[in-house]
Design a protein that fits this description.
Blueprint lengths: L8 H33 L3 H37 L3 H35 L11 H15 L3 H16 L4 H23 L9 H24 L19 H33 L3 H17 L1 H19 L3 H28 L12 H16 L1 H16 L3 H26 L4 H25 L10
Length: 460
C-alpha cells in the first residue's frame, strides 16, 4: 500500500538530477541574500527596515515576472516533451515581450509613487527609531534597484526556458557567479573597502544590479553559443512576433497564473503592511524572520519547480498514468523534506536574530516568527507541491482560486481585521494566518486527487 508513495533508486536519481541544480543555485542565492541582509542589518534598524520596505515592493514586481514566465513556461515544458522547437522559440519571445511591458508599467509606478507606497509601511510607531531616516534609506535604495529590473526579467526568460528544456546546470552556474559578485561588492560598497567610499544601503543596491547584469551575460552568451543543443536559440531574435493563435492560448492559460502571482504578491505586501502597524521593530523583526525562512525553504520550492518540469514533460508526451504516479511520489518527498527542515529552522530560531544590529524587541519578534514558520512548514510544502501540480496540467483558473483566491478571501481580511481592530501582537497575527492555511493544504490535496489536471493541452 505504501509502495505507491515512494519511488525506487532510479526515480529519485531522476528527480535529483532536476532538483539539485535548482537547489544549489537558489540555495546559494538565498545564502548570499542572507549575508547581504545581515550586512545591511549591521548598519542599524532604520537601514534594514528601509531596505525591507523596498524589497516588499520589488517582490511584487518579481512575482509579476515569475507569473509571466510561468504562464508561458507550462507551454514550453509540454513543447519540449513533444519536440516542438518552434513552439519553444515562440514561448521565449512571448516571455520577453510581456516582461518588457511589465517593466514599463512597474518602473513608471515606482518612479512616480515610490514615496507614497513606502510610506504605507511607516504608519506604526517609531519604537525608538527614526521614521524619516527610514524613508530616506528606502528611497535611495529604490532609485538604484529600478535599473536592475530589465536585467532580472531577461535572466528569468533565459533561465526558465533553459530549465524547461532540460538544461539546469547553466542557470545554476550563472546564479552562483551572480551571488559571488553580489556578495563581494556588498562587502566593498556597503562598508567602503578596497578604497571605495562606504555607501551603506546604496552600495547594497549597486551590488545587486551588477550581479544581475553578470547573470544575464552568462546565460545569454551560453544559450547563443550552444545552438546545437538549444535549438530554439537559432534565429531567436529574427522576429519578436508570436503567432496570434499561440499568444491567445498562452494568455488564456497563462493570464490566471500571471494574475495569481500579482494578487499573491500584493496580498503578501498588504499583510506585511498590516504587521508593520505594530511599529518599526516589527518591520525589522519580520524581515529577519522571512530571511531565515527563505534560506531554509529553498529545497521545497525547488521541488515544486521540479514537479512542474518533470510532470509537465510527461503530460506533454501524453504519459498520463506515469505523470500522476510521479507527482504523488514527489508530493510525499516534499512533505518528508519539510519535517527535516522544520527542525533545522527551530534550532536556529533564537540564534539567528543575534547577527543583526537591531533592538532586543526586534530580535524577539524575529525569533517568534521563525518558530511559527518552522511549525507550519509541512503545510507550506504540501500546498506548494499541489500548486505546481495543478499548474503543470494547465488548470490555471483552479490554480488562481486555490492560491491567491484563498489568500484574498481568508488571509488578507484576517490580517486587516486583526491589525486594525485588535491589540494582538504581530507574531500572534502571523500565527492566526498560518492556522488558516490548514484548510488550504487540505484543499490542495483534494484537487490533486481529482485528477482533472491530467491532460496534454499544449498541442490542442
Amino acid at each position: 500500500m505504501l509502495k505507491k508513495y515512494f519511488g525506487n533508486r532510479a526515480f529519485y536519481s531522476m528527480v535529483l538530477t532536476i532538483l539539485l541544480p535548482i537547489v544549489i543555485q537558489n540555495g546559494f542565492t538565498n545564502f548570499v541574500n542572507l549575508l547581504d541582509n545581515v550586512m545591511v542589518g549591521r548598519l542599524g534598524t532604520e537601514e534594514i527596515s528601509g531596505v525591507s520596505i523596498i524589497n516588499q515592493l520589488v517582490f511584487v514586481y518579481n512575482l509579476c515576472i515569475f507569473g509571466i514566465m510561468s504562464g508561458a513556461g507550462i507551454f514550453t515544458a509540454q513543447f519540449v516533451g513533444s519536440c516542438n522547437t518552434e513552439g519553444v522559440r515562440n514561448t521565449f519571445r512571448f516571455k520577453v515581450i510581456s516582461g518588457l511591458l511589465i517593466n514599463i508599467v512597474v518602473i513608471s509606478v515606482l518612479t512616480l509613487y515610490g514615496r507614497q507606497l513606502a510610506g504605507l509601511y511607516l504608519q506604526g510607531t517609531a519604537d525608538g527609531g527614526d521614521l524619516q531616516k527610514t524613508m530616506e534609506f528606502a528611497l535611495s535604495y529604490l532609485r538604484i534597484m529600478l535599473f536592475g529590473m530589465p536585467f532580472f526579467m531577461l535572466v528569468q526568460a533565459y533561465s526558465s526556458t533553459l530549465r524547461e528544456s532540460g538544461e539546469t546546470l547553466v542557470p545554476m552556474k550563472a546564479g552562483i557567479a551572480a551571488v559571488l559578485v553580489n556578495f563581494s561588492f556588498n562587502w566593498i560598497l556597503i562598508f567602503g573597502k578596497l578604497g571605495f567610499p562606504a555607501m551603506g544601503v546604496r552600495g547594497a543596491a549597486f551590488a545587486t544590479v551588477l550581479s544581475r547584469l553578470v547573470e544575464l551575460a552568462i546565460v545569454a552568451l551560453w544559450t547563443h553559443t550552444h545552438t546545437d543543443s538549444m535549438l530554439f536559440a537559432k534565429g531567436l531574435y529574427s522576429t519578436l512576433l508570436v503567432p496570434s493563435g499561440l499568444s491567445a492560448r498562452i494568455i488564456k492559460k497563462g493570464m490566471p497564473l500571471f494574475l495569481n502571482e500579482v494578487f499573491w504578491a500584493t496580498g503578501m505586501a498588504i499583510m506585511t503592511q498590516c504587521y508593520s502597524m505594530r511599529g518599526l521593530n516589527t518591520v525589522a523583526g519580520f524581515n529577519i524572520g522571512s530571511t531565515m525562512n527563505n534560506m531554509c525553504t529553498v529545497v521545497l520550492y525547488a521541488n515544486g519547480a521540479a514537479i512542474g518540469i518533470i510532470v509537465g514533460r510527461l503530460l506533454g508526451a501524453s504519459r498520463f498514468e506515469e505523470a500522476y504516479d510521479t507527482d504523488r511520489k514527489m508530493i510525499v518527498f516534499s512533505a518528508l523534506l519539510s519535517f527535516a527542515l522544520s527542525f533545522l529552522i527551530y534550532a536556529v530560531s533564537g540564534l539567528f536574530p543575534l547577527l543583526y544590529n537591531t533592538t532586543q524587541a526586534a530580535r524577539r519578534i524575529a525569533s517568534a516568527v521563525i518558530v511559527i514558520q518552522a511549525a507550519f512548514l509541512p503545510l507550506a510544502a504540501t500546498r506548494n507541491a499541489c500548486y505546481y501540480t495543478l499548474r503543470s496540467g494547465g488548470r490555471t483558473i483552479t490554480t488562481f482560486l486555490f492560491d491567491s483566491g484563498f489568500m484574498w478571501a481568508v488571509n488578507v481580511p484576517t490580517a486587516f481585521i486583526l491589525s486594525r481592530f485588535t491589540s494582538m501582537s504581530a507574531p500572534f497575527m502571523f500565527l492566526c494566518i498560518q492556522i488558516g492555511d490548514l484548510f488550504k493544504a487540505a484543499l490542495g490535496v483534494f484537487l490533486v486527487r481529482r485528477k482533472t489536471w491530467i491532460r496534454n493541452f499544449a498541442e490542442a
